[in-house]
Amino acid sequence: MDSGLSEDPVALKILIAGGFGVGKTTLVGAISEIKPLRTEEVLSDVGVGVDDLDGVEGKTTTTVAMDFGRITIREGLVVYLFGTPGQERFWFMWDELSYGALGAVVIADTRRLTDCFPSIDYFEQRGTPFVVAVNCFDGAATHSVEDVRIALDLDDDIPVLLCDVRRRTSAKEVMISLVEHSLRTLTGPGAR
Amino acid sequence: MNQWMDEEAGPFVRPYALIRGRTRSSGENLDLIAMVTATGEPPVAGLGPEQEAILRAASTPISVADVAVELDLPVGVVRVLLGDLRDNGLVSVSSPSSAGPRPNERILKEVINGLRAL
């Protein structure tokens, strides 16, 4: 399926999702070649159709922060990391972010596992390949990967990893696992 | 936009004032990782300093997200500025999704090897 346009620069997107304060910025920072930047996205309520915006009619613009990182694989092949805004009311932004994305990393914190349910639901529904990275915070009770898989009701083919988002090697493992998973969904028996 | 920035007070001009209050334009459909390249056409009169800065940054292909970082402006503002530049034929934009919704196998394998080598 090579298009013959292989000389054109290729840019790929990986999304980093999960609840508020779960370590999205830290993960981006651990592996990005640039300092994780907080870039801002405009939010306009016109035509958005999100119920949660009820009550803020008349509000036309505000901004929402978004983490941004970059990994250059080689000249002309760059992977961009985008930390998705955690709050559900910004979900309409995810549609654009997830379009054409290579996949997503959902970071989970076992102390408040439910925080990552919405992200998992979202990517399952969209058919976006994702892995679950369980961030092992200091002092957090450690759970086995299997326990987390059961608690999240994940299909067997979805990778679940324990990680420390502060460590570069750990962040690297998570990214590699995601791209491998994305490759399997592309070429495997269940390929879309 | 340094002339609009005070070290202590921050920006003199709110970002959306730069684009005259617009929040959407023909640039709205620009993907964050769409690649922008200056066409080299002579700039039209009346370009703002931000648009001139974009043209300099885009002398080699650069992603929409990187332009926002480079200029330290919100992505929404950069999209409007880029939309204007595109309308004037000053930048060309190649959408990453034009090649298909997902990257192909060869590219993914290359990414895996590249990540391992980091």
From TrEMBL, chain A:
One Pfam short name: ATP_bind_1
Record key words, sorted: GTP-binding, Hydrolase, Nucleotide-binding, Receptor
Source organism's superkingdom?
Answer: Bacteria
The answer to whether the entry has keyword Methyltransferase is: no
Question: Is the Hydrolase keyword given for this protein?
Answer: yes
GO MF terms listed in the record are: GTP binding; hydrolase activity
PANTHER family assigned to the protein according to its UniProt record, in alphabetical order: ATP/GTP-BINDING PROTEIN-RELATED (PTHR42708), GLIDING MOTILITY PROTEIN MGLA (PTHR42708:SF1)
Q: State the similarity comment.
A: Belongs to the GPN-loop GTPase family.
What name does UniProt use for this protein?
A: Signal recognition particle receptor subunit beta
* Organism phylogeny: Bacteria, Bacillati, Actinomycetota, Actinomycetes, Streptosporangiales
From TrEMBL, chain B:
Among the Pfam families in the record, one is DUF742
Name listed for the protein in its UniProt record:
DUF742 domain-containing protein
